[in-house]
Write a structure and sequence with these properties.
Elements: E1 24-29, E2 32-34, E3 42-43, E4 45-49, E5 54-58, H1 60-63, E6 72-75, E7 80-83, E8 85-90, H2 92-96, E9 103-104, H3 111-124, E10 130-135, H4 137-141, H5 147-152, E11 160-164, E12 169-172, H6 174-179, E13 192-196, E14 202-208, H7 211-218, H8 223-242, E15 245-253, H9 259-268, E16 275-281, H10 288-298, E17 308-316, H11 349-361, E18 365-370, H12 373-384, E19 393-396, H13 405-410, E20 414-417, H14 425-430, H15 432-435, H16 445-450, E21 455-457, H17 468-475, H18 486-493, H19 495-500, E22 518-521, E23 538-543, E24 546-550
Parallel strand pairs: 1-6, 2-7, 8-15, 9-10, 10-11, 15-16, 16-17, 17-18, 18-19, 19-20, 20-21
Antiparallel strand pairs: 1-4, 2-3, 4-5, 7-22, 11-12, 12-14, 13-14, 22-23, 23-24
Helix pairs in contact: 8-9, 10-11, 11-12
Length: 554
């Protein structure tokens, strides 16, 4: 899909509405258009020219000059129009890929139910490895046998690697441990923990980056995987468009596994349905000099016609609180055996600072996973070392020291939140055994918003559901931690997200000269109770004025 260049030489007329003297081909009228433009928040009509740019927006009289007999007219019948959603943190390829296996477990089930499901999957599996996902960590830890023994009891002749529901741990049988090179002498990799019994033998549960010891063996590059990754990119496009997403950052591109090539192939074949930024994964186990050179060589800002850009780097500083690997300033009240009492580091503060400084000079923006308060502080320090180069963001931001809250605005650091359905009062309570009363300070969206920091909302799909409407509902349902209003939530998913992706001059709001990236909804979310927002349906999605999705009812 061609992306039209930005319109230059726009003519500002004397009316209250800005228009430009360009030919128009499509009129959207009789609608409720929320523009996310502070100078003109609402409109009822819009004209889009043949290049996909907005040339007039306002009421019928304001756009009449740009409507003629050849104009295509779309009656919105009073429906709400918003700028297209921009998801700054989604795992598009991974979420759509069959590579990591189709054996899906249900986290709420018990161990016998998981074993029954795995046994069934094994009887149908064709590949060397049995891969899947969806077990619940705490349930597995409470079993009387070790995770390895449980799997060995049903599958001993094929390696098995099952990803936990949060993606931050793996359940392995003896065969998988052997092929992964994990034995009593194997050291913990950077950013990972191999859980062991009293004799030093691996229990079959590995945390965070230790899971890649298995995945790298299970998914070596191959022609078959190249095709799977490519098909995953294509499948992801349909999901994005169906959810009204017109821009996205694929938040962890495993460039050593062929992810980059899959995206590049789809872009070259004009098959993308969203403006896409790739976040290259910074591997914590690679040699720094070699990896930095590789990453710098992949930088690609694209051009005016590009839907694909390679301009961001994804780091993990730490793990997650759920398995006591998030890096904290004060020790956990209760942590898993073998894990440092304050959690772990994927990248030490010194390494993170070096990477951030050098890659920012090369043009990259940093996208830093930091969940614990020490990890957030370290990420801020690393960004400060870039001396103002780049538009960097910290994602998740679940615990933040009070002294660090003003630093986000001071350093122009974007706070990127994923208020998923998990962030309920019961979820906070579930973390109390690990971190005590600190659990009730998690996800300080409102504090950072009130501090003047730029806040974005995103999905972390497929850890969470993809729907921006559902995420916005959750961001308004957190009690005193909630965003102040729906307008703030919409801006976080549109204009502020566009800033994060370096495209706010062309997208993120509906105004003259910007691209007609927009979504039509079946309900006016500004008139709904908050708890109903997530049930709203996307009816129509346009990218640069071109349809990428249309519901059959529209």
């Amino acid at each position: 899909m061609r992306v039209p260049p930005s319109i230059s030489g726009l003519l500002l007329l004397a009316s209250a509405v800005a228009v430009a003297a360009e030919p128009s081909t499509t009129l959207l009228h009789n609608g409720k258009i929320y523009t996310v433009n502070a100078q003109q928040p609402w409109a009822s009509a819009m004209v889009i020219d043949e290049d996909g740019s907005i040339v007039a927006i306002g009421d019928d009289d304001d756009v009449a000059e740009y409507v003629d007999d050849e104009t295509e007219k779309v009656d919105l019948e009073g429906r709400l129009v918003l700028p297209g959603f921009q998801d700054t943190h989604a795992h598009v390829l991974d979420a759509s890929s069959e590579a990591q296996g189709g054996c899906e477990l249900t986290p709420q089930d018990d161990v016998p139910q998981w074993l029954k499901a795995l046994k069934s999957c094994n009887s149908e599996a064709q590949d060397e490895w049995l891969l899947g996902s969806g077990f619940g960590l705490r349930t597995l830890l409470e079993a009387k046998q070790t995770p390895r023994e449980l799997l060995d009891g049903i599958i001993s002749d094929r390696p098995v690697a099952i990803m936990e529901e949060t993606s931050h741990s793996y359940w392995l049988n003896s065969k998988a441990l052997e092929l992964s090179g994990i034995d009593t002498d194997t050291p913990n990799p950077a950013g990972g923990i191999i859980l062991r019994d009293n004799s030093g033998e691996a229990t079959g549960l590995v945390l965070d980056n230790a899971g890649d010891l298995a995945l790298d063996k299970a998914l070596p590059p191959s022609k078959a995987l190249e095709e799977i990754y490519y098909q995953a990119v294509l499948a992801g496009q349909d999901e994005l468009a169906k959810n009204g997403i017109t821009s996205v950052a694929d938040a962890r591109v495993f460039w050593r596994r062929g992810h980059y090539e899959a995206w590049e192939k789809a872009a070259k074949k004009d098959e993308l349905k969203a403006r896409t930024v790739l976040d290259l994964w910074a591997y914590p186990t690679l040699d720094d000099d070699e990896q930095l050179a590789e990453l710098k060589g992949m930088y690609d800002p694209g051009n005016d016609d590009s839907l694909l850009r390679v301009t961001q780097i994804k780091f993990y500083v730490d793990g997650i609180i759920h398995n006591t690997t998030a890096r904290l300033q004060k020790p956990y009240d209760e942590s898993l055996p073998g894990v440092d009492p304050k959690g772990l580091y994927y990248f030490s503060p010194e390494r993170l600072e070096r990477y951030s400084r050098e890659l920012a000079k090369a043009g990259f923006d940093m996208h830093i996973h930091a969940i614990g308060d020490q990890a957030v502080s370290d990420a801020l320090d690393a960004i400060e070392a870039t001396d103002g180069q780049g538009r960097h963001r910290i994602t998740h931001v679940e615990l933040v020291d009070n002294d660090d809250i003003p630093r986000f605005k001071q350093l122009n650091v974007i706070a990127d939140f994923q208020p998923s359905p998990y962030f309920t009062p019961s979820f906070l309570k579930d973390n109390e055994p690990a971190i005590g009363k600190r659990a009730y300070q998690m996800l300080p969206i409102r504090a950072l918003y009130d501090s003047g920091a730029r806040v974005t909302l995103s999905s972390d799909w497929d850890v969470n559901p993809l729907s921006p409407l559902g995420i916005m509902q959750n961001a308004l349902s957190l009690g005193e931690r909630s965003l102040p209003n729906l307008e703030a939530a919409v801006k976080a998913y549109t204009l502020d997200a566009a800033y994060t992706l370096r495209q706010e001059k062309d997208t993120g709001s509906l105004q003259v000269g910007k691209q007609a990236d927009l979504v039509v909804l079946d309900q006016n979310i500004f008139e709904l109770p908050v708890k109903q927002i997530g049930k709203t349906k996307v009816l129509w999605t346009l990218l640069g004025g071109e349809e990428t999705y249309r519901d059959k009812s529209f």
